[in-house]
Every structure is written in C-alpha cells, then in structure tokens.
Amino acid sequence: MIDYENPWLFDDKPFTSADIGKSYGFVYLITDKVTGKMYVGRKYFWSMRKKKGALKRKREESDWKDYYGSADEIKALVKEFGQLRFDRRIISVHSTKGDVNYSEVREQFRRDVLEKDEYINANINGKWFRKPGHIIAGRRITGSPGRPSQ
C-alpha cells in the first residue's frame, strides 16, 4: 500500500516501507519534470533518535518518503511548485551505510554531475566541487582518445 505522495520508484514500481527489509539506504535520481535538471544523492532508511528523557537512542524509520534531496534549488522548487513536479527514482538499494556512501559517490562521478549542466549537484561528498566553466575550458589533456593533442 502506498502511504505517501509521489512515491519513490524502484524498477518502475512504488517503493514502500515493506520493501526496506534489512536495507540501510539507497542512491537516488531526482528529475525536475519541467526543466529536466537532475540530482543524484543518497538517503538512509533509518535514523537514530534519542527521545526526551530516554537514556538510549532508538532506531526508527527516517523521513525518506518525504525527502527531496539536500540541494537548496530543489527544496525551493518543491516549496514553490509542489512534490509532483519531480520524478523520484531509486537507482540502487544497499545493506550497509558504507556501501550506500560509496555507491552515491561512484554514481555521481560516473554521471559527471559536477561538469554537466543537466545536474544540480554542487559537490560530491563535500570534497569535490563544481568548477567554473573557464577552469574546465582551460584544461590541457594529453593522450586522451578522441581529443586533439594540445
């Protein structure tokens, strides 16, 4: 049963809490249906919360159903135009936190999210950032197939 608006799709089927199983999190692609701009990220299914007055933290389901990424651009668009403007797809589901993190970074580099204008991502893992066009244009690369020697 789908219990949230604009569900995440995995293999073209809505993903629900019942589908989580022993998984820790997922890597996703959000697409703005109007502009075609995309965002690649990751989200954990679980969070550790300490209730007021409790001695221990307790594992509970995160806000993954309502999550639209950490990019300010997407957050502003969701607020202005609503959730249905976006297509939300789960690329991969993972059983460990480390595998979720690794797979997100791998997918972001594979898609070249920092250098292609169709992606909203501003950084990868907080370590690699989008470069201004003049820096990219000023690169000199030797021996690359399909590129003229400079």
Distance between the termini: 58 Å
Which sequence of SSEs, written as H and E, runs from N to C? EEEEEEHEHEEH
Could you say how many structural domains there are in total?
Answer: 1
Task: Provide the CATH topology.
Answer: GIY-YIG endonuclease
Shape: globular
Named at the architecture level, the CATH assignment is 3-Layer(aba) Sandwich
User: Helix count?
Assistant: 3
Number of DSSP E strands: 9
Helix coverage percent: 10-25%
* Global mean pLDDT: 90
Spatial extent as radius of gyration: 18 Å
- The CATH class label is Alpha Beta
Q: Major beta sheet, specifics?
A: 3 strands, antiparallel
SS class: alpha+beta
Low-confidence stretches: none
Strand order of the largest sheet: 4-3-7
Strand content: 25-35%
CATH superfamily: GIY-YIG endonuclease
Task: Walk me through what this model shows.
With 150 residues, the protein is an alpha+beta fold. It has a single domain, classed as GIY-YIG endonuclease (3-Layer(aba) Sandwich). The protein has three helices and nine strands. The strands form four sheets. A three-stranded antiparallel β-sheet has the order 4-3-7. The chain starts with 8 loop residues before the first strand and ends in a 13-residue tail after the last helix.
Topology overview:
Layout: E1 9-10, E2 13-14, E3 25-32, E4 38-44, E5 46-49, E6 58-61, H1 72-81, E7 86-94, H2 97-111, E8 123-124, E9 128-129, H3 133-137
Antiparallel strand pairs: 1-2, 3-4, 3-7, 5-6, 8-9
